[in-house]
Amino acid sequence: MKEKNVLITIFGGTGDLAQRKLYPSLFRLYLKGELQESFAVIGTARRPWSDEKYREVVQETIKDIAESTEQAKTFSEHFYYQSHDVTDTEHYDHLKDLADRLDKQYDLQGNRLFYLAMSPNFFGTIVQHLESQGMLDTDGYHRVIIEKPFGTDYESAKKLNEEINDVFSEQEIYRIDHYLGKEMIQNISAIRFANNIFESMWNNRYIDNIQINISENLGVEERGGYYDKSGALKDMVQNHILQVLALLAMEPPIEFSERGIRQEKIKALDSVRIYTPEEVKENFVRGQYDDGHLEDKTFTGYRKEDNVDPNSATETFVAGKFQLDNFRWSGVPFYVRTGKRLTEKGTRINIVFKPTPVNVFKTSITEPSEQETLAPNVLTIYIQPTEGFSLSLNGKEVGNSFDMIPVKLDYRNSAEIIGNTPEAYEKLLLDAFEGDGTNFTHWDEVAQSWRIVDVIRHAWDNETPDFPNYAAGTMGPKAAYDLLAKDGFEWIWTPDEWYRERNLL
Ligand code: BG6
To answer: Residue limits of the Glucose-6-phosphate dehydrogenase NAD-binding domain (predicted)?
Structure first.
């Protein structure tokens, strides 16, 4: 492995994301030798920290994964802090002096990666200053990583993209969707394109419906201020859910490369039907959590959370049906469901296959089965917290009758494997160092996702919702169940049932 020579400048260096995700991920890359001697990090933010203070913070964030305090300290010595007002031109001059000095000191070969982990309002200002103040006047590569949210609707995203495009080309822009760095999300392509039994059946002849669940048991925690303006639709559906949908629905790429995959994902998103306001009402459900309890825990409703408007009309839950108008998927609903304060944390995908055309066991002359229909075969992809796949089949129940019972082929990664799985940010940072944009979102994907979501948002904004409408700890409002029932389907994943049966919910 060749070490990566790079200067990483983090805007928002004192923030939560930097501390929880970026520093530990950089450290893991250091442990693996991807970063060795020739790298440096400049953290910037408004706070007047010193290098010493910054390094202490960095050490604190990695203390549980470092082999010794000495090792953590040596790593943190690559970190430099610059107090910075992103609107003050002069500050970029200081930043440039520091960057040029570190470039020589660490042999960084002019390679510069800028990580924008702060309020998107400033992204345009930052990139313009990076160019005007000469931060990009080096021989190496210049790349920018941008955290979500990328805009708040299509128009704002387009404006933001134009501002960034004035300075960086599309190939130099790395828009993060951390779901694309998750091991099991990357595995979707492996399951599909390395197993002919699935890929040959991956279409509307054999698949009844697909269900994408991203369920969270936490509430909004300390992010009420952000979340109350965003809501689940923009926070989860516009990005993570539509990206997962694109990976499930896309055609096999000609080659497994950045270009190959992007082309197919864009086509898949282009085929998602853009709803009319009436269709939104029919196909999408929103919810907001009320007080609730689960086992011995009690939860307060969303409107009572910190920094949330007590009359808030923001949704903390979305369930919906996407329809893809192309040859492969016509007629197959893609149901999606995501929310806060649901029963369990879990991201899982269910591929529900069509039943056999007839149940021949029902007509057996000797011992007719009492079952009218057979349970569907379901392929489940477990993204988190457990990682693996299962396939449910029908087998014969032992005995004289010909009743079928579901049998599950189940594979899960062991705790040890999961423990060693690279964190999403680690993979994505490494990809950015290597110039591989496969697991980042291309502008065309972002634009189309906003178009899909904007019509839902507009339709909702024109009506006052009847909130709150689901108890914390449950899997969302009744309407989310009705949505599938009216098509003759049901949610495959029902973690709430286990608690209900025991009177714990
Ligand atoms: C983020 C959202 O993008 O994803 C959060 O802003 C959400 O609201 C988070 O909690 C979920 O990520 P993960 O990796 O915990 O599933």
So the answer is: 10-187
How far apart are the C-alpha atoms of 380 and 360, rounded to whole Å? 26
The residues near 210 (Cβ < 8 Å, ≥ 6 apart) are 248, 332, 333, 334, 335, 349, 350, 351, 352
Q: What is the mean pLDDT of residues 267-294?
A: 98
CATH assignment, 180-349+423-433+442-501: 3.30.360.10
- Beta strand pairing status for 334-339 and 378-384? unpaired
Q: Which of 78, 84, 129, 240 is catalytic?
A: 240
Q: Could you tell me if 438 and 165 are in contact, meaning their C-beta atoms sit under 8 angstroms apart?
A: no
Inter-residue contact 432 to 143 (CB < 8 Å): yes
Tell how far the Cα of 240 is from the centroid of ligand 1, in angstroms. Answer: 9
Q: What confidence tens digit (pLDDT) does each residue in 21-37 have?
A: 999 999 999 999 999 99
pLDDT at residue 364 is higher than 80:
no
Instruction: Return the residue matching tokens 């940010």.
Output: 425
Q: Is omega for the bond preceding 149 within 30 degrees of 0, making it cis?
A: yes
91 belongs to the catalytic site:
no
Q: Which residue has a Cα nearest atom 2 of ligand 1?
A: 235
Higher pLDDT, 79 or 4: 79
What is residue 365's predicted lDDT score, i.e. its pLDDT?
65
Please state, in angstroms and rounded to a whole number, the distance separating the CA atoms of residues 487 and 492: 14
Atom of ligand 1 nearest to the CA of 182: 14
Ligand 1 pocket test target in 179, 235, 338 with most atoms within 8 Å of CB = 235
| DSSP code at position 400 | S
Q: Beta 207-215 vs 297-299: how paired, if at all? A: unpaired
Q: Is the pTM of this model over 0.90?
A: yes
Exposure of 249 in the CB half-sphere (CA atoms within 13 A): 32
Q: Ligand 1 center to residue 179 CA distance, Å?
A: 9
- Alpha-carbon distance 452 to 273, whole Å? 8
Protein residue with its CA nearest to atom 8 in ligand 1: 235
Q: Is any atom of ligand 1 closer than 6 Å to the C-beta of 235?
A: yes
**172 CB under 6 A from ligand 1?**
no
Angle between helices 51-62 and 23-31 (to 10 degrees): 70
Q: At what angle do helices 154-165 and 123-132 cross, to 10 degrees?
A: 10
Pairing of strands 317-322, 284-287: antiparallel
CATH of domain 6-147: 3.40.50.720
CA-nearest of 212, 189, 185, 187 to 202 is 189
Q: Helices 23-31 and 424-434 sit at what angle, rounded to 10 degrees?
A: 70
Domain boundaries, the chain: 6-147, 180-349+423-433+442-501
Which DSSP helix (H) or strand (E) runs through 113? strand 112-116
Structure tokens at 184: 């099991």
CA 76 to chain centre: 29
Cα separation, 105 vs 103, whole angstroms: 6
